[in-house]
Amino acid sequence: MGDPVHLAPTDSSNLEVALLEPERALVLRIPPVPAPGPFDFTWAFILQPKSNDTTRLVVRERYAYRQWWARFLVETVEVASFVMSLRMLHGITSRAEGLI
């Protein structure tokens, strides 16, 4: 746990691994150092096996606000985050189904 995860090759603001259960779950979070920000953030990727030999990928973002104004900051980027997550999930689906 604690290993850095970069969202892009040139990304200097990394996340870190908060939980890793092979073939089941990966949870990333904002590192608490050098200083905690106005909110905590986790990004969870959960694999759920289905009865028909398929697997469902569930992706969740969670925020815990440390400052009263942090909610407004997060709400301004939620739409962009939603669109980016949809594009990411479509890309994962295409790769998993061998379309790319």
Question: What layout of secondary structure does this protein have?
Answer:
Blueprint lengths: L3 E2 L9 E7 L3 E5 L9 E11 L5 E11 L4 H27 L4
Antiparallel strand pairs: 1-2, 2-3, 3-4, 4-5
Our count of helices gives 1
* Average pLDDT for all residues: 87
Stretches where pLDDT falls below 50 for ≥5 residues?
A: none
Strand content: 35-45%
User: Structural class, from secondary structure content?
Assistant: alpha+beta
The major sheet is characterized as: 5 strands, antiparallel
What is the CA–CA distance across the termini? 31 Å
- Give the proportion of residues in helices: 25-40%
Strand segment tally: 5
Spatial extent as radius of gyration: 15 Å
Overall geometric form:
globular
Order of helices and strands: EEEEEH
Major beta sheet, strand line-up: 1-2-3-4-5
Instruction: Give the tally of structural domains.
Output: 1
